[in-house]
Automatic annotation (TrEMBL):
Annotated source species: Saccharopolyspora erythraea (strain ATCC 11635 / DSM 40517 / JCM 4748 / NBRC 13426 / NCIMB 8594 / NRRL 2338)
GO molecular function, one term: adenosylmethionine-8-amino-7-oxononanoate transaminase activity
Subunit structure: Homodimer.
Encoding gene (name): bioA
Family the entry assigns: Belongs to the class-III pyridoxal-phosphate-dependent aminotransferase family. BioA subfamily.
Name of the featured protein: Adenosylmethionine-8-amino-7-oxononanoate aminotransferase
Amino acid sequence: MTPEALLAFDREHLWHPYTSMTDPTPTRLVTGASGSRITLDGVGEVVDGMASWWSAIHGYRHPILDEAVRRQLDSMSHVMFGGLTHEPAVELARRLIDLAPAGLDRVFLADSGSVSVEVAMKMALQYQRGTGRPERTRFLTVRGGYHGDTFDCMSVCDPDGGMHAMWSGVLPEQVFGERPPPLGGDVDAWAAGFRALAAEHADRLAGLVVEPLLQGAGGMHPYPAECLAVFREVADEHGLVLVFDEIATGFGRTGTLFAAEAADVAPDVLCVGKALTGGYLSLAAALCTTEVARGLSASDSGVLMHGPTFMGNPLACAVASASLDLLTTGDWAADVRRINTGLQALHEIDAVDVRVLGAVGVVQLDHPVDVPEAAEAALAQGVWLRPFRDLIYTMPPYVCTDDDIAAICAGIAAAAEAG
């Protein structure tokens, strides 16, 4: 099919994320990708400022990751995980336990980030049942969060300003505290209100679910690391399972390997995904403590009630281990610091707010972004961006050069001007 025919069929028949089927926004045809760049039909190579929604931290067509997939294909691409196991899954679990905050030594391999949060919430619910508190069925969280598009995950996303407000009245009703303060904000005042809310609802709460240090698709809000200690203290005081959703923040994005490390805090359950495979295949994990595992195993079912068909997919596990090896044997921290330095140029843009944390740069406008116009303006600067709401942002691959980051900043400036 010609590029024109491919795009015509796509427009008529394919749904894209958060896009109308009957009046879709324009799409671009990708014909290749390498390093920090994707190749678009009719445009050529452009810097991918999104790292394929924050996952392709090592860039595209990395020879080590490519080889990991090819090597795994020589033995098996998939085998069911029920009653069977295999070396790629065992090796990945070993690496994750070694890297994760202390105590997280039980690993559930899930299909996607959203599914891992679903599993974490089930862990919390079953833990409460197993420890004799079945009445604890609600979750505490904060406004401004986003945890995925599956059903229970939507219930802990921001209920008003988030993407799932239309499901009000259908989703389980959770308990929402105020969004943590911005960097430099008054943590004590926020903490007092959050502690009071937790105490008010404690006898009905199973767990506390948050994105540590940076709220992602709910609005790209960084907040002080001291808040993580508050979450840990509240969970301990009221017997809640503390879940850190690090799908966006894990593997170095905010400047520490896991955002939890910024406050030296360990959750009871840690969810990771996105960058886990370097953007090659869909895979996520929910790691929990032995205490949580034993508690939920004492529930009436005796087992964790979840088991995806593609759980522990060998191809995904193999490339995930290779990706983690690349991360830990390289100098990812220096790359993130270098990217952070380059993104400081965003502060020159006239905007409501500019936020830079680790390898994340956000420009907030005073109006909703015209996404097609903004994207075209960025493309004219040789950069692919995908703004949302009133935000133009970047979470680029760690392999970006200084010139790439300068181009991204120029692309964001152009998008802000056009959008």
